Here is the input.
Amino acid sequence: MTVALQVDGVDIHVDGAGPRALVMVHGWPDTWRLWDAQVAEFSAGWRCVRFTLPGFDIDAPRRVLSLDAMVGFLMQVIDRVSPRQPVVLLLHDWGCLFGYELAMRHPQRVERLIGIDIGDAGSRAHLAGLGARAKAMIAGYQLWLAAAWGLGALGDRMTRAMARWLRCPAQPRWIGARMNYPYVIQWTGRHGGYRGRARFDPACPMLYVYGTRKPVMFHSAAWAEALAARPRCRVLPLPTGHWVMCNAPADFNRVVRDWLAATDAAAA
Here is the structure.
């Protein structure tokens, strides 16, 4: 059963009727559809909550949210779907940055974290571990997308071309340049920028899953090792690209299911 809600003009899709909420936050250039395989797996025991990030819906009015506004929006969603209990966050790409910031600002509202392919990206340790070629690649695709943001129909074509090049599984129909505003904020500092975000050091258990078949890693080895050493935390590589949950959905779902069960048992 799917229940549709609305928060700040954004449709919120809730599948399942379990006692706890699994809140799924996507990144670029995706929508709520990214999580189809996870909803099919987990909605029997969880309330699976998903939505398209504000400003990412190509059929909705164009908008840009600062980091503060995005965290505020996510908090509205959580308070609406789980007013009395903390939630589990399932995060990918830009969803990781936004969800990690929420977890640091409102730790009492986050029970557990599942991060996909984005760890301490942009930290000193991460940047120090990147070679010149990797840094150039990151700057190249991000600046391309930032430039495309303000170019209308040409920007849409540029964005879809980059999505193809990066082997994004999303359908071109749902991809447009308006989704690129986080890269504009990242590189220009507009709308408050992202430099003021909290250092990510979660207080709750965390599962971090990342793909190994890609040219650039988005975490430092030191960060992954430190996280893996924490009680009830786990770091797991899978032989996929950036979109782990789409490239190997059965393996990913199994890892998440086993970790949720293990952390439930440890808490009990």
Strands lie at 2-7, 10-15, 21-25, 47-51, 87-92, 110-116, 206-211, 234-238. The CA atoms of residues 29 and 163 lie 7 Å apart.
